[in-house]
Design brief:
This protein is mainly alpha-helical. It has four helices and no strands. The C terminus is likely disordered.
């Protein structure tokens, strides 16, 4: 599968230097990702490819290392993250109830 998601990344309009920062500047860099529609795909890409530097998918290098250490058996972060995102609506981030509505 291609990396066509990159075309929709909010950070494409940002200065790349702002995504490869240290210390407290990382929080500002992570904010660039907050409203990005491809944030999950970006994070999965970084984890699947073991990218060590920069802000990817709204995470720092340290945060990604922690995820990789915590879940060493994951073979596809993309599959895992996309499946975890399914029960939520993209706009409201609230659970989508499956099945028939309960009678009151």
């Amino acid at each position: 599968m291609g990396e066509d998601w990159i075309e929709n990344a909010v950070c494409r309009a940002a200065d790349a230097e702002n995504l490869f920062v240290q210390g407290s500047a990382q929080n500002q860099a992570k904010a660039i990702c907050s409203d990005c529609s491809v944030r999950t795909r970006c994070l999965a890409y970084a984890l699947d490819n073991r990218i060590e530097h920069g802000i990817w998918g709204g995470t720092t290098e340290r945060e990604r290392r922690r995820l990789l250490r915590r879940e060493p058996a994951v073979t596809s972060w993309r599959a895992l993250l996309e499946s975890a995102e399914q029960p939520w609506t993209a706009s409201s981030r609230t659970p989508v109830l499956a099945g028939p509505a309960s009678a009151a």
